[in-house]
Each structure stands twice: as structure tokens, then as C-alpha cells.
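Bug #77: duplicate submission created two jobs. Keeping one. Sequence:
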Amino acid sequence: MTSFSKGNPFELVSLRQIIKEETDAKIDSTILSRLGRVIAPLFRDTFQKEPPTEKEEVNGGIRTTKHYPRYWIRPLIKLWRTVDPDFFIQIKSEYNQLELLLFI
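Kept job's structure:
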């Protein structure tokens, strides 16, 4: 049985929120968008419907973002981290490099 120590398993969460919980990294919106293009079709195939959307603040503006049930998305992100840990290391590295460039 899967343990859901972080939050209600039926709560809807954005990719940004679940990745931050799992990796403690801030994620660039472009990378999140690319990841979302992979995750959304998986959701459609699984549930035969569109992912729910909610409005949230992204880069200083209110955007409509797809949200997924925590019980469904969290194991996917964990599996992805296991199969391709470099993807998440790259995300964190790209963000840190960008952050460094902004302060130089």
C-alpha cells in the first residue's frame, strides 16, 4: 500500500506543486509545460476525460493549469525520478544556472 504522508491523496495538485514536494526544486514554466504535454495524455488515457483545471499564479499572472489527483500523479513523478533521475537533476541545474545569471 502506498503511503501518502504529504497531503490528502484525493486532493487535486498541479505539476509544479507535486514536483516541488518530491524534489524540493523550483521548476521553470517551459519545462513544466513540456512535462505537462506528456502527463496530460496519460491522464486522458487513464480516466477517459480531460484533466481538471484550476487557476493559479504562475510567473506573476493568473493562469489556468491542469491539476491531477495526488494519488495518481505522485507515483508517476516518483517512477519518472527512478527511471530518469537526470531529468530532475537537469531541471534543478537549469533553474540554478538561470537564477545565478539573473544575479550576476
